[in-house]
Each structure stands twice: as C-alpha cells, then as structure tokens.
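Exercise 7. Given the encoded structure of a 481-residue chain, write a plausible sequence.
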C-alpha cells in the first residue's frame, strides 16, 4: 500500500478530503492527517510518504513552498495540491514545481478518484524503477548499504548485513512479518507478484530465528525463503544476493516451501557430472528411465541447488552438442541455461527429469524421431491455438503442454519446430513480448500490470527478457511509445 499524508489548516476540510478518496481501491493507505504545515514537513522528512495532499494556502509554509522544500531535501513524494481558488498562476506554479495534480475545492469524488487511479500507475512505475536501480547496484557491488539504510531514515545502523529472498507460487502478502524483529532494520524490494528481496541490517544472523518463526506461522507455508550469510562489508554483497536467490529456488529440488540457505556441494557435483556424461558416452544399452530415476534420487538426497542442476544441465547440453548436428540441437530446444532460466523453464525437479528422460529416449532413436507417420500437423495447430489463448498463464510450459496433448516433451519440440520454425519456448516468449509492447502503450496500465498480463509474476525476470528481446527496458519503452 502507498502511504498518504494530508495537510490542511482547516480540520473540517481534512475530514472532507479523507472521505472523498477511495484509498484502498487504488492501493493507498491514509496514515497521517495534520493541520500544521510545519508538522507536515517534519512527517514528510521522517516518514517519506508516497503521496502528500496539501492545501495551497496555509500559515507559515504554503503548499508550493512545502513542495519546494521537500524536493530540495531529495524526497520524491508525489503531491496533489488543493485550492479554493481557480487561479491559473497557482495551478501553473504547482505543476512547474512537480505536483501531480491541482484540484479545486469542493472536491468532486469522480475527478478525485480518477486522479488517484492515474497516480497509482505512476507511483507503481516509479517504485519499480527505483527497485531496479537498487537491485542492479547490489548485483554490481555499486552500492553502500550503510548509506542506503541511512537514506531510509533508520535510527541506527547495526553491525551486519544479510539478504533474504522470498519466493512463492502465489501473491506474497505476509513475508515481511515472518522476518520482522525489533532489533533489525529491513528494506523490502518488491520484485513481482510472487518475489521479494529483503535487505537486512542486524546484530546477528537471522537464519535460525527465521526458521523458528516460519515453522510456527501457518500463513507462510506457501513461501520459500532463501537466506544469505551475514557480512560486515557494506559495499560487496553481490555474491550474497546471488546465494540468497539460489537458496530461494530450493523448493524446485526439495518439493516443499521452507527456509533455505546455500551450502556448496562442489565434490559431489563434479562426480555426478562426470558419472552422467561418462554413462551417456559409453553405455549403448542404457536403461534410460532407470538412469534418470537414479539421477533424481542423487540430486534430491544430496540436496543439490538449482545452480548445481544448471551446471549438470549445461554439461549435458555440451555433450549433446558434440554428438548431434546443429539442426537436431535447435529442434530439441536444448540450450544452455542459468539457474534462474532453468527454474522458470522446468518449475520443479519432476518436470526436469521427465524432460531428460524424453530427450535421451529421443536421441537414442527409441521414440521414432524419423518416423513421418508420427508427424501430425493438426496436433501442432491445436497447440498453437492453446498457446495463443493462454500465453498470459505463468504456468504455461513445454512440460504442461506435452502432458495436455499426450506427447513426449522432446518430440513435441521437434514437431513444433518443424511446423513453425521456432521452439515452443521461443514462440511463447515472442508472443508475450509482442503483447507486452502493445500493453505498454496503454497509459492506464503500470509496468507491473503488463508483466502480470503477459505471464510473468517475477517482474525482474520479465524486465531482463524484455530488454534482451526488444533492446530497451519496459520503463524506457513505455516512455517512448
């Protein structure tokens, strides 16, 4: 919810403003009502509300000067200015200083709420851009966390820093309360409908405390937390952010949400990779299904991470690339993936193992890859129709489509590529990007709305995919179209 402060030197006017706006409908929460512009300024400096609604004529500090002082202090609160005077110069100066809107008393409910609706979109986009900046600065070690916490007006800065990712299959609404403790500072970055990053400033490692609170709080059972180590270094935290994010993907392997940290399994992983590739190279009579079941058992029993799994996958891709022609590789949709891409492509370990089983079966020739009798264009037509109608579903994937149409996943890739010239994942991504470009031109939609509307609950993942495909971030594309 976006925080709101109202200031007007007439108490009855405050009541009228409070009752005019439908705050919660547009994601706002009215937290402060004051009759003194001096008190308003103190609250703005201390709490940095998302929105300030101010009368233009007040004793001591008028509404225009309140905006100017706020801007001089680098506080980016939005302002709606209210006046009982329909004077052009007042309106012009308010807009020049940066007011979002200028409304006349008495307020008209429809006009007021139309302004609030539009402002909600603007603040939403602004928050996302701000979060991206912080996220990118963390990833590139281009940030000082001590300065960041001071900018958020925390009263004191503790000794250690720690990063926590929260990830869920549905909308996250209560993750912060699971972490909350009076002896820590928390900055939370909303990264999408089902993903948050918490930057923690604390005097101790919160991992055990978080596990205890998690196990006693049934409302968090649909959330996975990935927790980094602690550090005193306020400027070098990119590796901790990476560790926390990978740890949050652990439900992919373990099959359940919980609190996870990341422990390296280098020796086990190296042996598993060597064994897998050696078996594929030497065993011409391999029982593929049994081999893949055993592979899954090893991965789960040793609690390998999704990053470990990505390394295993990429070694398999390298092996397949050496053994088969480029046309085969493209048809199978076999490509190198990082941990994040693997997580979103396969969703869970079972889908991953099913795909490996189907791929190895196909490569061995047991699935009848070259049998033209199996080539049914009408099946692909139905798949295309399904994708076109359901591209916005976050769960649409090769595995789900294969199950729905009763077809081997790897073989589905081959047929789809043969008919369309694209792999299924390429087709879905291209369709989503086309729709995203159309939606970004709609001024009433926030970037977050567009992300969700195209099937991406993780806004930051959407941002990366969009930039890679279109060549600009969604925010920049929206500004120029």
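Solution.
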């Amino acid at each position: 919810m976006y925080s709101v402060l109202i200031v007007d030197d007439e108490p009855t006017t405050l009541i009228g403003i409070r009752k005019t706006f439908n705050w919660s409908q547009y994601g706002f929460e009215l937290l402060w009502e004051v009759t003194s512009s001096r008190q308003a300024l103190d609250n703005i400096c201390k709490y940095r509300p998302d929105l300030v609604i101010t009368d233009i004529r007040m004793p001591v500090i008028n509404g225009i000067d309140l905006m100017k002082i706020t801007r001089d202090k680098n506080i980016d609160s939005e302002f709606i200015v209210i006046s009982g005077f329909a004077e052009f110069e007042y309106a012009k100066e308010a807009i020049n200083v940066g007011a979002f809107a200028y409304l006349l008393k008495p307020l008209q409910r429809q006009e007021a709420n139309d302004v609030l609706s539009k402002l909600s979109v603007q603040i939403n986009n602004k928050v996302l851009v701000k979060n991206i900046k912080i996220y990118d600065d963390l990833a590139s070690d281009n940030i000082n966390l001590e300065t960041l916490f001071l900018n958020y007006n925390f009263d004191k800065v503790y000794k250690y820093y720690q990063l926590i990712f929260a990830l869920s299959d549905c909308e996250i609404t209560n993750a912060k309360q699971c972490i909350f403790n009076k002896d820590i500072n928390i900055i939370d970055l909303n990264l999408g409908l089902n993903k948050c990053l918490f930057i923690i400033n604390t005097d101790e490692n919160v991992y055990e405390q978080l596990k205890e609170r998690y196990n006693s709080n049934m409302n968090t059972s649909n959330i996975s937390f990935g927790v980094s180590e602690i550090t005193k270094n306020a400027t070098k935290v990119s590796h901790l952010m990476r560790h926390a994010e990978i740890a949050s993907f652990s439900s992919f392997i373990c099959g359940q949400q919980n609190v996870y940290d990341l422990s390296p399994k280098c020796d086990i992983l190296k042996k598993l990779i060597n064994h897998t590739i050696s078996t594929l190279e030497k065993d011409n009579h391999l029982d593929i299904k049994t081999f893949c079941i055993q592979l899954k058992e090893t991965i789960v029993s040793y609690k390998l991470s999704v990053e470990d799994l990505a390394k295993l996958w990429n070694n398999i891709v390298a092996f397949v690339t050496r053994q088969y022609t480029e046309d085969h590789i493209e048809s199978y949709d076999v490509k190198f993936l990082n941990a994040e891409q693997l997580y979103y492509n396969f969703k869970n370990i079972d889908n991953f193992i099913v795909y490996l089983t189907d791929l190895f079966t196909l490569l061995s020739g047991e699935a009848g890859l070259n049998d033209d009798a199996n080539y049914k264009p009408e099946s692909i037509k139905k798949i295309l129709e399904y994708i076109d109608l359901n591209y916005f579903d976050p769960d649409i994937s090769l595995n789900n489509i294969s199950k729905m149409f009763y077809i081997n996943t790897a073989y589905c890739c081959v047929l789809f590529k043969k008919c369309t010239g694209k792999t299924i994942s390429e087709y879905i991504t291209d369709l989503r990007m086309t729709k995203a470009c159309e939606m970004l031109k709609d001024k009433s939609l926030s970037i977050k709305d567009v992300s969700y509307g195209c099937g991406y609950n993780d806004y930051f993942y959407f941002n990366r995919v969009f930039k890679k495909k279109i060549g600009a971030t969604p925010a920049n594309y929206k500004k120029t179209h």
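Remark. The longest helix spans residues 109-139. Students should compare their own answers with the one above.
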